[in-house]
Amino acid sequence: MSPQTTKVGIISCSGEAIPEGTISRLATRRVLELLRPNATVTLCLPLFLAGNEAERNFAKTHPTITIDGCEKQCAKWGTEEHSGPVSSALVVTGILGTRAVGCHRASRDATQPDKEAVWAVAERIAAEVDTVLAETGPRDDVAAGSSGAQCSCSSPASGGKLIVLGVAVSIPGLPLIFEQCVERDIPADTGGCSALVEAVRIYRRILPEEETGYRSALLAAYQAFRSGPQPAK
Amino acid sequence: MGNEPIKNAVLVIPCSGIGKVHGLMSREATYLVTDELAPAQTDTLCLALLVKGDSEAVAAVRSHACITIDGCVKACAEKNVAMAGGRVAKAIQVAEAFKNHRGAKPGNATALTDDGWTITREIADSVACEAASLCASEEAIR
Fold this sequence. Notes:
The structure holds two protein chains of two kinds.
Chain A: E1 8-12, H1 19-35, E2 40-42, H2 47-50, H3 53-56, H4 58-61, E3 64-68, H5 74-82, E4 88-91, H6 92-96, H7 112-136, E5 159-164, E6 167-172, H8 174-183, H9 193-201, H10 211-227
Parallel strand pairs in A: 1-2, 1-3, 3-4
Antiparallel strand pairs in A: 5-6
Helix pairs in contact in A: 1-7, 8-9, 9-10
Chain B: E1 10-14, H1 21-37, E2 42-43, H2 47-52, H3 55-63, E3 65-70, H4 76-83, E4 87-93, H5 114-141
Parallel strand pairs in B: 1-2, 1-3, 3-4
Helix pairs in contact in B: 1-5
């Protein structure tokens, strides 16, 4: 598998019976759309039984991470039984602990704790994608989204442009990152700079010598974002 | 299910397909039925449990009438229930519901628009009616 074509497969259990299943599904979508759009693909777990040979070979052709809602680990077991061994297996309850208590199955019931839970799990999956890619071959800034490649089932989120130390930088999903920062009550002043940089660092590598430039550029962009119209909740 | 025993007569099982809006519609339609429209008659279980071959899930689909809701023609929910030896009393395809909503923009695999919710609620209404009918016929048999 060449470094140019290596994409990490993410298989979510999407368990319908429990809120953690909804979290696993939405967190996987977030990684595909926003966090690692050029480095990840997915497949519906039930296709391992209902699909064809190509679909059953998924875990043989992609390093695969499973994300399960509970300790039954249906995605892990189903993938390994019907497709192939997985590179890593995550469990929502293991990541969130008691933070999943009070979350909901249906999206129409979702509240702030649901959103926070999805973000936390998505960030954990993204970190695992980076680890798997580091083990399977060189990684060419997959988080920055510059290759033009797309995941198998969706397009990357639209990006935001910044001028950092005189250089134009594109950050995938920057408006969504800012939206999350607003929800977390991160202030649009110098007190919020560190939190902004940490939020963006999840999606884009920031070298130590670039950090000062990112702080001022992100703060200015965040202030502009907050002064504009906010998306409907 | 996942973790709770199933008490109600009819199991509603969506594909929850992760790649397209139709999978999300199947999932949300299921919750509308089990949580709002017919909570005393219906329940759901994790389709992934069937993929795993979990003995309780297999027993559940064999002992309950199942309504499957699939997002695409691959019909993963229907096929997995059938492969587990379950009783598929009604198999619904989300795409069928779009026939009366040409040009609708339902959203994406992460979130539904107003169009998406309208169609999803129609699917849920249809499933709730089917569940009521199944419950009535099972009562009649007793």
